[in-house]
Amino acid sequence: DRQTLVAVLQFLRRSNLRESEEILRREARLLGDDLGGNVATVATSSPGVAAVAAVPPGKGEARGDCGVGPSSGREPRGVGSPVSSPSSKITHSGDVIGGAVAVEDQPDVSAVLSAYNQQGDPTLYEEYYSGLKHFIECSLDCHRAELSQLFYPLFVHMYLELVYNQHESEAKSFFERFHGDQECYYQDDLRVLSSLTKKEHMKGNETMLDFRTSKFVLRISRDSYQLLKRHLQEKQNNQIWNIVQEHLYIDIFDGMPRSKQQIDAMVGSLAGEAKREANKAKVFFGLLKEPEFDVPLDDEDEEGENEEGKPKKKKPKKDNVGSKSKKQDPNAPPQNRIPLPELKDSDKLDKVMNMKEAARRVRLGPECLPSICFYTFLNAYQGLTAVDITDDSSMIVGGFADSTVRVWSVTPKKLRSVKTAADLSLIDKESDDVLERIMDEKTASELKILYGHSGPVYGTSFSPDRNYLLSCSEDGTVRLWSLQTFTCLVGYKGHNYPVWDTQFSPYGYYFVSGGHDRVARLWATDHYQPLRIFAGHLADVTCTRFHPNSNYIATGSADRTIRLWDVLNGNCVRIFTGHKGPIHSLAFSPNGRFLATGATDGRVLLWDIGHGLMVGELKGHTDTIYALRFSRDGEILASGSMDNTVRLWDAVKAFEDLETDDFTTATGHINLPENSQDLLLGTYMTKSTPVVHLHFTRRNLLLAAGAYSSQ
């Protein structure tokens, strides 16, 4: 359609996207400069066609919901990705920056909201909605569960339409009549909605802008969809049909409709379910090959174990520890897919220690549960807000609401700083114990306090080599501290709002942070600007985790979704929906295949990363889950919660004989076992201490931490 083409070309020209304009001209063989006249607004919603609204020149606006194909223009864009692809699809320039759609670099709220222009008679809205409700409630059971998913998004859009067009009394009565019918997990959203009663309120509310600009995704079987479509067309219920077409993305699949509990397991996020397309990309979830290096095993360290006079066990001699490296995992990323730091000698020594400890590791299982050692922070009147423990369990750090970071040694070895420069110059650098000599005994203490942040510290993370410590704070910065000098080395400024979490890569050097500005950032310790920005969440990024192979990052958000991002190109490769509240904890299984997530809804959900599927749900906690950790060999999953308990779950059983056939993957027909009690191996209460961190030592002793609360 020539008119549409001209409109698109005008839009590209106005947005200064000359390259895209040229490509489109060549494709469409429109060579002359025939872009005259004001073209009327054109919006199409057939898949694969860019729905772009052109506006008369002079009104520098574009409609917020134009994008490629049926999705809205809200695909997160990796750093350095091209603005437009050289095919006939066009990505619109209203790129999404922190929630609002930016048109010509200016988040133009009115453009986004103007989609709610006057449509339909305000007095009939209740009738339309109750008519649809009656139709759905009277439809067959198999369709009812699926079609009931429409209630919430339609309710919100109809209410916002009434408010936007200043029918305040109608909006109020519409809200009061139908808000009770919505699912319980939307209560918090409805509370926000009920406070929006005037058009002016909508301007500053980011949640509502998100609801407007990102299409709400529903997954419905073809039969149910045909039923709905027929009903709306017979009734000539254009009001609702318009909303369905404009603001909802219906992901239609062939096959049996899903049951109520199958749907309930997957819905509940701010933007509905994930599209099936979103979880199709290939993910290299395997582990990288361990480097090989020769280390003769010495026998001295065996002596200490036999004080009780037991006869010494004969161990088969190994020629070298490094030879344990297996064949390359078929699901692993290429070794050089992302540049990883070289191993230093100290890292190799640490790996050897790690392997020796691993040889003495306790094999856990339902018959052999770990002992749990609980570190209670007493009199933490400063307010404990974050905890981390080093991989070798020698140090523990607490981040506090009084903006301090406190590091403790939990072994008899005290924390010491390096000597001053003048003293260091006197040391013989060739001596064998030079690393001991550079430490200043006068500074030895069990606790070091690090000052520098100007707000509560919400996240802390030790580097794998224990030389550095990260902390992130409400002040919008991430700080890197030296554990040699106990001073701050760098302050990374990129987030303009509180940073809720930060974590070092398992290989060091890289780290990730996530915050209130809804994006996660990937950093390297020697760059003061982020290397990647992962944008796509519709609310705060509340927790961040590196995959064991460091090629991927998982982020949990207050939009109740978990996303998996590819470090290489910044793309979002998985979106997991199913939690009914903000996500507060993430843990990858040691083999890299599975992800466990915990949220304010008190449920732990288990995901198969390769297939992009939910494979389990662990119910038992009664409050937010702030800590999740797999044991070193992945047999047990430990979860810690604000309900003052640590629970241990049988991870082997949870992940065995999974139904991950193609059918399940294609439709999302997941069958979770009715109760997860047979996976629960134990529940351990504290007196009155919420659990904020869990850590398995190299020998599988479980360490837990939290601050005593004297309610």
Automatic annotation (TrEMBL):
<dbReference type="InterPro" id="IPR036322">
    <property type="entry name" value="WD40_repeat_dom_sf"/>
</dbReference>
<keyword id="KW-0804">Transcription</keyword>
<comment type="function">
    <text>The TFIID basal transcription factor complex plays a major role in the initiation of RNA polymerase II (Pol II)-dependent transcription. TFIID recognizes and binds promoters with or without a TATA box via its subunit TBP, a TATA-box-binding protein, and promotes assembly of the pre-initiation complex (PIC). The TFIID complex consists of TBP and TBP-associated factors (TAFs), including TAF1, TAF2, TAF3, TAF4, TAF5, TAF6, TAF7, TAF8, TAF9, TAF10, TAF11, TAF12 and TAF13. The TFIID complex structure can be divided into 3 modules TFIID-A, TFIID-B, and TFIID-C.</text>
</comment>
<feature type="repeat" description="WD">
    <location>
        <begin position="450"/>
        <end position="485"/>
    </location>
</feature>
<feature type="repeat" description="WD">
    <location>
        <begin position="377"/>
        <end position="418"/>
    </location>
</feature>
<feature type="repeat" description="WD">
    <location>
        <begin position="492"/>
        <end position="523"/>
    </location>
</feature>
<dbReference type="InterPro" id="IPR001680">
    <property type="entry name" value="WD40_rpt"/>
</dbReference>
<feature type="repeat" description="WD">
    <location>
        <begin position="618"/>
        <end position="650"/>
    </location>
</feature>
<dbReference type="GO" id="GO:0006367">
    <property type="term" value="P:transcription initiation at RNA polymerase II promoter"/>
</dbReference>
<dbReference type="InterPro" id="IPR006594">
    <property type="entry name" value="LisH"/>
</dbReference>
<comment type="subunit">
    <text>Homodimer. Component of the TFIID basal transcription factor complex, composed of TATA-box-binding protein TBP, and a number of TBP-associated factors (TAFs), including TAF1, TAF2, TAF3, TAF4, TAF5, TAF6, TAF7, TAF8, TAF9, TAF10, TAF11, TAF12 and TAF13. The TFIID complex structure can be divided into 3 modules TFIID-A, TFIID-B, and TFIID-C. TAF5 forms the TFIID-A module together with TAF3 and TBP, and in TFIID-B with TAF8. Component of the TFTC-HAT complex, at least composed of TAF5L, TAF6L, TADA3L, SUPT3H/SPT3, TAF2, TAF4, TAF5, GCN5L2/GCN5, TAF10 and TRRAP.</text>
</comment>
<feature type="compositionally biased region" description="Acidic residues">
    <location>
        <begin position="295"/>
        <end position="306"/>
    </location>
</feature>
<feature type="compositionally biased region" description="Low complexity">
    <location>
        <begin position="78"/>
        <end position="88"/>
    </location>
</feature>
<comment type="similarity">
    <text>Belongs to the WD repeat TAF5 family.</text>
</comment>
<dbReference type="Pfam" id="PF04494">
    <property type="entry name" value="TFIID_NTD2"/>
</dbReference>
<keyword id="KW-0539">Nucleus</keyword>
<dbReference type="GO" id="GO:0005669">
    <property type="term" value="C:transcription factor TFIID complex"/>
</dbReference>
<dbReference type="InterPro" id="IPR020472">
    <property type="entry name" value="WD40_PAC1"/>
</dbReference>
<feature type="repeat" description="WD">
    <location>
        <begin position="534"/>
        <end position="575"/>
    </location>
</feature>
<feature type="domain" description="TFIID subunit TAF5 NTD2">
    <location>
        <begin position="120"/>
        <end position="248"/>
    </location>
</feature>
<keyword id="KW-0677">Repeat</keyword>
<dbReference type="InterPro" id="IPR015943">
    <property type="entry name" value="WD40/YVTN_repeat-like_dom_sf"/>
</dbReference>
<protein>
    <recommendedName>
        <fullName>Transcription initiation factor TFIID subunit 5</fullName>
    </recommendedName>
</protein>
<feature type="repeat" description="WD">
    <location>
        <begin position="576"/>
        <end position="609"/>
    </location>
</feature>
<dbReference type="InterPro" id="IPR019775">
    <property type="entry name" value="WD40_repeat_CS"/>
</dbReference>
<dbReference type="Pfam" id="PF00400">
    <property type="entry name" value="WD40"/>
</dbReference>
<dbReference type="GO" id="GO:0016251">
    <property type="term" value="F:RNA polymerase II general transcription initiation factor activity"/>
</dbReference>
<keyword id="KW-0805">Transcription regulation</keyword>
<feature type="compositionally biased region" description="Basic and acidic residues">
    <location>
        <begin position="318"/>
        <end position="329"/>
    </location>
</feature>
<feature type="region of interest" description="Disordered">
    <location>
        <begin position="295"/>
        <end position="347"/>
    </location>
</feature>
<dbReference type="InterPro" id="IPR037264">
    <property type="entry name" value="TFIID_NTD2_sf"/>
</dbReference>
<feature type="region of interest" description="Disordered">
    <location>
        <begin position="55"/>
        <end position="91"/>
    </location>
</feature>
<keyword id="KW-0853">WD repeat</keyword>
<dbReference type="InterPro" id="IPR007582">
    <property type="entry name" value="TFIID_NTD2"/>
</dbReference>
